[in-house]
Amino acid sequence: MTDQVHAFQKWALVTKEKMASPLDHDPKFPHYWSEHPRYRVFGANTNAFSSRLFGFSICHLIYHENTMLLATKNATYSAAVSTEKTATSMLLPFWNKDMTTNPYASLCCKYPHMSKFLGTIPSNQLQYAKVPFWKNIQIPLSKHSWELKIIAIWITKGRVCLNAHNKDWLKVLAKEVPEANWEI
Predict the structure, then answer these.
(1) What is the pTM of this model?
(2) What is the DSSP letter of 131?
(3) DSSP for residue 128
(4) Phi, psi at residue 122, to the nearest 5°?
(5) Which of 22, 28, 39, 58 has the least C-beta neighbours within 10 A?
(6) 115, HSE (Cβ side, Cα atoms, 13 Å)
(7) Helix %, strand %, coil % for the chain, to 5?
(8) Tell me: the pLDDT tens digits for 118-133?
(9) Could you tell me if 85 and 158 are in contact, meaning their C-beta atoms sit under 8 angstroms apart?
(10) How far, in Å, CA of 129 to CA of 2, rounded?
């Protein structure tokens, strides 16, 4: 996901990584947030749900239903009360063809003025990041059997800022993340 995250940094103005797992955290971000205190050993801030999301961030969560719902609620609430430019790019698993069975997707559908489905990254394009401290031993991880939905949770000020930065930001982002099926 590293190349994709860099594209979000460039075109969606992402400066923060929220709710990353240690296996997918991009070390180019000086800070990242996670739900689990055990991830402090990897440098995570662990107050993810006690802090409001603001500015431009990306969330690639651990694949745990309750965590994904809490993170989506946090992003939606943060956008609803924000007075700052706010846009959170959520990368959420798409377990099946009916998004209404995913509580976090249902929440996004309830707030269409703040949530936009931007695209889908197919399962065959998903790979785990190489973990730099695993030098000689590579533990094989299971293959992804799901797709990732790219969802923006934002307020008008965030959308206006993205368009002012580059009116074609989403089209350019789509070119830099070509493996995704974009809903432009």
Answers:
(1) 0.81
(2) P
(3) P
(4) -65, 155
(5) 28
(6) 23
(7) 35, 20, 45
(8) 998 888 877 665 666 6
(9) yes
(10) 7
